[in-house]
Design goal:
By secondary structure, the protein is mainly alpha-helical. It has ten helices and no strands. Helix 1 crosses helix 2, helix 1 crosses helix 4 and helix 4 runs parallel beside helix 8. It is elongated and about 55 Å long.
Length: about 220
Amino acid sequence: MARPRGFDEKQVLNAVRDQFWDAGYAATSLEDLMRVSGLGKGSLYAAFGDKRQLFLRALRSYTDDNHDHLRKALTEAPRALVVLRTILEPPTGDPTGAGKRRGCLMANSTLELGNADPEVLDHAHRTYETSTALIGDCVARAQREGDLPAEADPIALARALLAAQQGLLFMSRTGMDTATLTATARSLADQLLPDHPMPVPARPRTRPETRNAKAV
């Protein structure tokens, strides 16, 4: 019978994810991983494999969490348009600016490793296809709710929103100030998600009352 692990696997994955996210894959050393996880080399590699396997596990955990968050938001939001607009909200909530400098772990990893590691590139492709499908479902719901034009292609708009979001995250890494980033996000939202209120049903027309003219 296998002995139970003396650590929380999800907690360790979150810790190493943040290390890879902050420093990148190449710049993260085994010592860094041991420090943030609190595990020795033997325990770390016995549980997760080598550095690359640990990185891939952390990356999958990151994308799974993001997709779960999007599904939950779509389920709980009173209207789908609210969720679509939050997709374009820049990471401005952290006063330290760490969120802006981080960008997107999936995008960062694709830029760093996509050309050299087919598994990372394949995961990126599947991740963005899943994101597109989820956002597309959200667009379709917004259309049913009357908040977006019915003639719009849900998948095409979903890809445009995803591309805009990734562009905002990249620009945030360049040091763009919060005010400019927020204004850019609002401009993108206004162009991609214009106000399209539910049409008000026309009232049935009634015949005007006719009054009999009194004979003089």
